[in-house]
Amino acid sequence: MGGGLLIITLIFYNVSIGCNLVDHAKELAKQRGCKAVTLDSGLPRTGAHGFYEHYGFEKSCYGFELMI
After folding, report:
1. What region holds the N-acetyltransferase domain (predicted)?
2. What is the mean pLDDT of residues 37-50?
3. Could you tell me which of 60, 61, 56, 63 has the C-alpha nearest to residue 26?
4. Domain ranges, ordered by start, for the chain
């Protein structure tokens, strides 16, 4: 089951709003029978990576793209 989009901007990474948004997304996913929450984050976004890792997300794959 897929389908949602959540964007947390840089100003929210170090305040509870970012955690509250992810908490809410996680709760909605549970209610819909999802087994996991996954996300994509660009390589240069190290601040975002730190936020997600601190929250408990684990790196699970590499993403690739081919510009044409």
Report:
1. 17-57
2. 85
3. 56
4. 1-68
> At CB < 8 A and 24+ separation, what contacts does 59-64 make?
none
Instruction: List the structure tokens of 35.
Output: 């087994």
More confident residue, 27 or 16: 27
**Length of the chain as a residue count:** 68
**In this structure, is the dihedral angle defined by the CA atoms of residues 46, 52, 56 and 57, taken in order, positive or negative?**
negative
Query: Which pTM value belongs to this model?
Result: 0.68
Would the CA dihedral through 33, 37, 40, 41 be positive or negative?
positive
In sequence order, the 6+-apart residues with CB closer than 8 A to the CB of 28 are: 4
